[in-house]
Request: fold
Amino acid sequence: MYSIKFMKPIVLRKSLDDMTEKQKEQALRLLHNTDLMVIDKGGLKIVPEKEAKDIRLCFYGSEAVCVYREMLGLPDVGIRSIDVNDIVQAVTDYDTLFDIMFFLRRVDVRSERFNKLSAMLAPKVILMNEYRMLRENVEFLQDNNWCDHPIVCCYDAEDDDGNVEHCKDVRKSLIDIGYDLLTGKKYAVEKD
Reply:
């Protein structure tokens, strides 16, 4: 069984819907590295990223959101691995499989890159950026339209008259086949 394992959990934006507006706003600030969770003598506290430049012991990104949710007594929504075989078995046509494999490859490359940079003890700002990009790639895998700027596949198609037309197709993601990364299960997709 092949799976992509993450060194740190990944939190999707849609999994924050069980929070109040104020809590969700703070969670998004943590998710986007605007705020960090710092460990000091008094325990954990949330500070703006600008004030945490010299602090080595801190949580950022999805990991900070997991800690924040735990402090609030909310369930853990962090994704720690993606079962590739299960996803491949859930896909029914080749074109969709091609698109989803494209996203899975991007997630795998970002995960490996983050792991290597962590092992090299890269500066915190580089790790924070890589972790953010890894989360964004997982977001695209789950729902390619999550930020209203979907990734497209561009190609040239020739019609019967020999005219070439430039085409753009939005790549399919897991939401299109009814697969949820949070539960790791397929659900019924409503047809339009």
Remarks:
- The first strand starts at residue 3 and ends at 10.
